[in-house]
């Protein structure tokens, strides 16, 4: 029988065994996946410590430890984030119950690392400018320490740095990030609606996760990317419900995190709706101030006054 099967395989092509991330073949077999407590916990923890904690560590730690011409503590946090986050995203994709497009995942991870690395350099210099009096609630050319530079072509160089930090770096960083989350979300469905639910651990993590996404969207100025991802999630949920499928615990965790994030963004905008200075910095229909622009405008002077006493 063995020789006969080997001869038949030599005469006719045998079907290949699909890998964990197939070449775009999405199977219609759905399995119930347990809640990935370890991955979601590490993911939330490192987001808070390595991303949100970057500028805080740079401001709190003594300047003598990290001179302005050397990498700061926040830069080392950023380096660790650029290594750990893509690793966790790959581990998350590996646990997806569906076969996912391998090429898209690889390209997304590569672009993510490149964008986060570009942002590392630009963000490092921009945050270090705070110690020289740079004010994030003003544009580059309106900053007192920038507009008096000679020759004036130096101002163009700082605007280029700002572009790499706030536009190119953010785009190459966040677009693959949300794309990977959506790709994973597309496999978080199960035919057994009775098994769909969130364990206690997921309920405890959904608050910190949502608060971090609020920071990510507001500080990164990526509301359009976020809202399109959220609408795509809603459309996918509606479509799968018509097929009798429901979100599993991991899908519910992501979906509820995005819903709470939207509520937090709405509260943030409503609170700062009448701030004339921030309105000038963020003109247009979509008005979502950055938290660090709010800090340099309303909080940094208070901290300086306390330090003088």
Automatic annotation (TrEMBL):
One of its GO terms (biological process) is lysosome organization. It comes from the Eukaryota. Keywords: Membrane, Transmembrane, Transmembrane helix. This is CLN6 protein. InterPro entries: CLN6. GO terms for cellular component: endoplasmic reticulum; membrane. The lineage of its organism: Eukaryota, Metazoa, Chordata, Craniata, Vertebrata. Signal peptide: none annotated. The keyword Transmembrane helix applies. The chain crosses the membrane at residues 76-93, 105-122, 167-185, 197-215, 221-239, 251-273.
